[in-house]
Design goal:
Elements: H1 2-7, H2 10-26, H3 37-55, H4 61-81, H5 89-100, H6 108-122
Helix pairs in contact: 2-4, 3-4, 3-5, 4-6, 5-6
Length: 125
């Protein structure tokens, strides 16, 4: 999924992001009783590296919107399962930088959501 996210057209990106959302919704590693910190950290790093591309997509707000919802879901799941340590500092930096590029976004609701997620990530440090 991560490879397709960088290479595809906006419709492919949108589909991949929606699939990622579904994938992380059901990922058992994001549940406390099935925790495997190394495996989860690896998955999150790959995801963070590729999702920044979608967050910084200035052309399609639908892609940015879907990317934000994937990040929002991940942060919520990490919170619920108390696995913040799986989100490495490299991941946090990548996400914070990409979310910062959304500050001048043309859609206020995306600006707000990006700012909120950015603040959450900054507070983890």
């Amino acid at each position: 999924m991560c490879e397709r996210l960088k290479l595809g057209t906006w419709k492919v990106q949108l589909g991949v992001l929606q699939s990622m959302n579904a994938f992380f919704q059901g990922l058992m590693l994001l549940e406390e009783e099935y925790a495997d910190p190394e495996a989860l950290a690896e998955i999150l790093l790959e995801t963070c590296k590729s999702i920044t591309y979608s967050l910084e997509n200035k052309t399609y707000s639908s892609v940015r919107t879907e990317a934000l919802s994937v990040i929002e879901l991940l942060l919520k799941k990490l919170e619920e399962s108390k696995q913040w340590e799986c989100l490495t500092s490299e991941c946090r930096v990548l996400l914070i930088e990409s979310l910062a590029t959304m500050e001048p976004d043309s859609r206020p609701e995306l600006q707000e959501k990006a700012a909120l997620l950015k603040k959450t990530l900054e507070n983890l440090e």
